[in-house]
Amino acid sequence: MTTLVTNTNWERVPIESAYLGLYDGPHATPKPAATGPVFLGIKNITEDGRLDLSEIRHIAEEDFPNWTKRVMPQPGDIVFVYEATLNRYAIIPQGFRGCLGRRLALIRPNFKKVDARFLFYYFFGEDWRTTISKNTLSGSTVDRIPLTTFPSFKISLPPLPIQRKIASILSAYDDLIENNTRRIAILEEMAQSLYREWFVHFRFPGHEKKRLVESELGLIPEGWEVVKLGDIADINVSNIQKSKEPAEINYVDIASVSIGHIDKVEILAFVDAPGRARRIVKHGDIIWSTVRPNRRSYSIILDPPMNMIVSTGFAVITANKTPYSYLYYALTTDDFVGYLTNHATGSAYPAVNSGDFQNAFNLLPPSQLLDAFHNIVEKLLAQKQNLFRRNDNLRKTRDLLLPKLISGEVDVEGLDIHIEGGTYESSREPIPSLS
User: Fold this and answer.
1) Distances (CA, A) of 234 to 296, 315, 347
2) pTM of the complete model
């Protein structure tokens, strides 16, 4: 049920009164290029409102002017998906240089009428989502929002000072999340760098005294071994047994795992869980999606909740002769991803099996060096896990506040909130940066 604004100083207006322009992207796709500006696609806009540029399609410099004739995205614009995967929005950050892709459109806010951040958060509220649902056209293949009638969609706007206060409160949570995310990336790079230094480039403590010898994996330090993964780890060792099913589980499916992180854990009664909810995981286990391994859906399990169960679509790898930290980084290298990808079979859903994991060659350094690595990296992994949990809590709090704030249910007029600048206009209001 939609919560309508009851504040007398909030206006119910067509959304076109809040923007200077509405622009859609081209209805074609340019030739791909190795470098150049970004050709923004649906996959680059996340469900939670971020611009994800970890995987991008480039457009050649010489083609760029033709693909920005309609509009050149600029900082503060709100880009959104109007066809296929609806209800995805993001703010164009400072430093972005690119063009809109297919099925994307953008709004250029009128800074005299609306705070861009307020409008961005408004799109995640119940009132706007209800409007989109009522106006969605269902096609034979995809759903879409009609851009011809989009300008008449109604929104509720408080006075600009109230908008800025609301946006500042919600932005504070997103700023903390972004800061933690940057710290997570730094910690991960530290761990990966140490792994590469010691176990790829062989510049480990005391390496000067070791000569390199031939092996199945090429030159390795003398005294190190090449073994199969099945010799140093157990694969899918623990599954739920009949008559021993827990009443409730914390379930993880393949769609809930991104590169190196579990994005969602679903609490389910076991009787309602899918049949593939069978694999038991514990602290230190590594999960790897067996389907489409090139997508790198993997994660390490650290301090899991009770009865954490993952889909049988994962291989669960349990280290038994190495620390889990070493095995995790050994099994997430480009070389290992390439090994899995090359062994995947099937055209629509290429997949590997447990035997492919068991037969993979791995380097086994001396235990003393592995312990030294673990003593360092275990702390980095623990810090990462703590920051992930903080972000989860921040998101939950923000998501609880958002509908109450952008509907006017919580009155912020009397709150003493310091606002830096006024709007995005002339860079007076901080705009997220790509750096």
Assistant:
1) 20, 10, 28
2) 0.85
